[in-house]
From TrEMBL:
Record's protein name: SpaH/EbpB family LPXTG-anchored major pilin
Cited InterPro entries: Fim_isopep_form_D2_dom (IPR026466), FM1-like (IPR048052), GramPos_pilinBB (IPR032334), Ig-like_fold (IPR013783), LPXTG_anchor (IPR019931), SpaA_PFL_dom_1 (IPR041033)
Keywords from the named record: Cell wall, Membrane, Peptidoglycan-anchor, Secreted, Signal, Transmembrane, Transmembrane helix
Entry-linked PROSITE patterns: GRAM_POS_ANCHORING (PS50847)
Domain of life (superkingdom): Bacteria
Signal peptide (UniProt feature, chain positions): 1-26
Length: 528
């Protein structure tokens, strides 16, 4: 009996030891990966990137896996760039990030001096790139390409359980990965717009001495690694525009930025001006200066001033920005260009050459007399703060924005006007005529096409509108509804006072004469 008890005790002890061994074996996540360990790896893949000479494809970790127990147990994910990817956004797969979020993430990564690049290598064909990584999410950036760029991409290596579920509590875990498809931009493009425009981004209206502000953007910035880089922007003004100058007469330098970073003249670029052409060159000496900003957007801001040579609306004042670049800096002369033009207009009233005659006609009697009146002087006042039809009625003549004198056809010509509201008042009339005291409200309105060119414009005078519209043949059609400003001759002025006043005047004079006669008669009688 004692032997049986001893045997039973030995067997029980053996069972306990074996049970403990089994438990210890099951908890060895480094062997079975029951919970996931810090040593787990997987292969991430990016498709669609050409295998150019010198090209760099790098991955940067933006979300890391978190482990407990000295790396033995996976417990979740942490964002390494919480300003862009908040902890609330963190999940196993971040392939749904928007293009704006990807751009912000790329900017944050490139500004991080502590980042570590993981190179991707070209493997099975010329467009597939891979790297072996640990669990987490990675931003993939492509650099050192020629005259084109690739969009930022994210790929992930993340844990799933045996059912493919990422909502993990415990159980056997494996790493799975996402693949990214690169989007390639074949060439940089240029865009130019007018900021603070009274038309649209590409067209506006002006008057002499107005300042027109421009913004040129080039995207994406290419990367060049060869010895023949070409990358510059030329801006050319028409005769009606001049570059803004400082008090010494020097052209004011443009402001050049990439994102929020302001580039430095003579270090990152040079500026040269030849007449009405400004060139901003990003090859200083023989060195291309924008490789550090590849795939980002270049912004150039500068201004022009309208001069007296600005042409009227049936022509146009243009400003053209031209991008010159090379398709391959390893080859001399493989260059091309792209350009964008803005359109600036100025308007007139009463012009024979532009067909605006007949909108306002000065007459000497009435609009049906067909007698135009020349020599009447008019003032045009710009509406604005404190300037209304009521204030213009009593305003001084020298406060007028422009003055004009009616010609032999009764036309009043005001030139180089922009979109807006004005007030028209007669300042003086020819001999023999009275001044018309009415103040007329004049409104110029414009409509531009999407490319900035003028589609139609109108002049409204006291509610009467004349329009000028571009037809399908590219010629201007006008619908004119004239306004007649009538002056009255002084000889036809109505008498003031009626017949009753005249009678009273005569009677009063008679009484005074009779009183005087009686006075002198009485004096003679007394003298006798």
């Amino acid at each position: 009996m004692k032997k049986l008890k001893k045997l039973f005790a030995v067997m029980l002890s053996l069972i306990m030891v074996l049970a403990m061994g089994i438990t210890s074996f099951a908890a060895d996540s480094g062997t079975d990966k029951i919970f996931g360990t810090i040593d787990d790896t997987a292969t991430i893949t990016v498709n669609g990137i050409d295998n150019e000479t010198g090209i760099q494809v790098n991955a940067y970790k933006v979300v890391e896996a978190r482990y407990d127990g000295a790396g033995a147990t996976f417990s979740g994910y942490n964002s390494l760039y919480p300003a862009v990817i908040t902890q609330e956004m963190v999940k196993a797969d971040l392939s749904t990030l928007t293009s704006d979020q990807l751009t912000s993430l790329a900017n944050a990564v490139m500004a991080d001096d502590t980042k570590t690049a993981i190179p991707l290598t070209n493997t099975t064909d010329t467009t597939t790139w891979t790297a072996t990584v640990g669990a987490g999410t990675y931003l993939v950036l492509v650099s050192d390409t020629e005259a084109h760029s690739y969009n930022p991409m994210v790929v992930s290596a993340y844990y799933v359980n045996e059912n493919g579920n990422t909502n993990i509590s415990e159980g056997a875990l494996t790493l799975t990965t996402t693949a990214a498809n690169a989007k390639k931009s074949n060439a940089p493009t240029i865009n130019k717009k007018i900021t603070n425009s009274n038309g649209n981004d590409y067209g506006n209206s002006v008057e002499v001495n107005d300042i027109v502000n421009y913004e040129v953007t080039v995207t994406p910035i290419p990367s060049y690694t060869g010895s023949h880089p070409v990358f510059n922007v030329e801006d050319t003004l028409s005769n009606g525009l001049d570059f803004v100058t400082d008090e010494n007469g020097n052209v004011v330098d443009p402001v050049v930025k990439v994102g929020t970073t302001t580039l430095t003249k003579d270090t990152d670029y040079t500026v040269s001006v030849d007449g009405r052409k400004m060139t901003i060159n990003f090859v200083v000496g023989k060195a291309y200066k924008l490789n550090a900003y590849a795939s980002q957007t270049l912004t150039i801001r500068y201004s022009a001033k309208v001069n007296k040579d600005a042409v009227l609306w049936d022509n146009v004042n243009t400003n053209t920005a031209k991008l010159n670049y090379t398709n391959d800096s390893k080859v001399d002369g493989n260059n091309t260009s792209a350009e964008k033009t803005t359109y600036t207009y100025t308007f007139d009233i009463g012009g024979e050459a532009t067909g605006t005659n007949g909108i306002i006609t000065k007459t000497g009697k009435d609009k049906n007399s067909e007698k135009p009146l020349d020599g009447a002087v008019f003032g045009l006042y710009k509406a604005g703060e404190g300037v209304t039809a009521e204030t213009v009625a009593t305003a001084a003549d020298n406060a007028a924005y422009k003055t004009a004198t009616s010609d032999t056809k009764g036309q009043i010509h005001f030139s180089q006007l922009k979109k807006g509201t004005y007030y028209l008042k007669e300042l003086s009339a020819p001999d023999g005529y009275s001044v018309n005291t009415h103040v007329y409200t004049v409104t110029i309105d414009t409509t531009h096409k999407n490319d900035g060119t003028l589609d139609r414009w109108s002049v409204t005078i006291d509610g009467t509108t004349s329009t000028f519209a571009l037809n399908n043949e590219g010629t201007w059609e006008s619908v004119k509804n004239p306004t007649y400003i009538v002056n009255t001759t002084l000889s036809s002025l109505p008498s003031t006072g009626g017949i009753g006043t005249t009678i009273f005047t005569i009677v009063g004079c008679g009484i005074m004469i009779a009183a005087a006669g009686l006075f002198f008669a009485s004096r003679r009688k007394e003298n006798r």
